[in-house]
Amino acid sequence: MSKIPIIDFDLFPPFGGFPKEGISFFKRLKLNNNREWFEKNKEEFISNVKEPMQSYVVALQTYFTRFAPEFDLNPNRSIFRIYRDVRFSPDKTPYKTHIAAHFVLRGKPKGFIGSGYYIEIGPGELYIGGGIYIPEGDQLKKIRKAIAVRGKEFLSIVENRKFKELFAPFEWKKLKRIPKGYEENHQMAEWLKYKQFFVGVSWPELKCYKKSFVKETAAICEKLTPLVRFINSAL
């Protein structure tokens, strides 16, 4: 296992909750989603959104070293840029109206497409999830093979009572018929039809204002870890 890099915690103030001013910034950005307005208010974005998110990621790292130390929680690399990729989108507004982080396996490049954790903070709703959302063709084949061969292990995760209470129903995209290479009566037939393996929880915005948001987020991520690891072991 690769060595956990040392982060200078003194560079990031202790996380005491995501500031309400940060959510307010996004509400105003939604009404003024243009470069001129953003540049005028960029310092507010940095102090009320970016820096608190960095402190939040640093605080989360302490928990991840206990239950998922193989994941990289980096206050600089893990947070998505505020700028939208508008090249192929009919919506040409240049900025996202939320902030999000994606935690990938340590040593993998930024943007690694694999199984990991995703956290989003924005007006009205928070989201904490994990798994793989849009696997590539070869990845999907490997995941299905693991489900077919290690069915008992997979079911022990997704049919665990506590896991289902938190994350079911699994509203994943699904094939109408079992994929090629598998018998229609395969004991894992219904699971083999799925095209994505990602679960999570949505919370009201108010939760992020509390210092306990870090601990509560970590608890969800810990419960996601068996699924996240199963998928990465398949890949």
Description:
The protein is an alpha+beta fold. It has a single domain, classed as Protein of unknown function DUF1054 (BirA Bifunctional Protein, domain 2), CATH 3.30.930. 42% of the residues lie in helices and 14% in strands. The chain contains eight helices and five strands; from the N terminus they run H-H-H-E-E-E-E-H-H-H-H-E-H. It has a five-stranded antiparallel β-sheet. The protein is globular. It starts with 19 loop residues before the first helix and ends with a helix. The mean pLDDT is 93.
Q: Estimate the global geometry from the Cα principal axes.
A: globular
Largest sheet: 5 strands, antiparallel
Calculate Rg over CA atoms: 19 Å
The overall strand count is 5
Tell me the domain tally. 1
CATH architecture: 2-Layer Sandwich
Query: Which structural class matches the secondary elements?
Result: alpha+beta
- The strand order across the widest sheet is 1-2-3-4-5
Query: Which segments are poorly predicted (pLDDT under 50) over 5 or more consecutive residues?
Result: none
Tags for this model:
single chain, 235 residues, alpha+beta, BirA Bifunctional Protein, domain 2, five-stranded antiparallel beta sheet, 14% strand, globular
List the SSEs and their pairings.
Elements: H1 20-31, H2 35-40, H3 42-67, E1 71-72, E2 99-105, E3 116-122, E4 125-132, H4 137-149, H5 151-158, H6 161-167, H7 189-192, E5 197-204, H8 213-234
Antiparallel strand pairs: 1-2, 2-3, 3-4, 4-5
Summarize the structure.
With 235 residues, the protein is an alpha+beta fold. The chain has helices at 20-31, 35-40, 42-67, 137-149, 151-158, 161-167, 189-192, 213-234, and strands spanning 71-72, 99-105, 116-122, 125-132, 197-204.
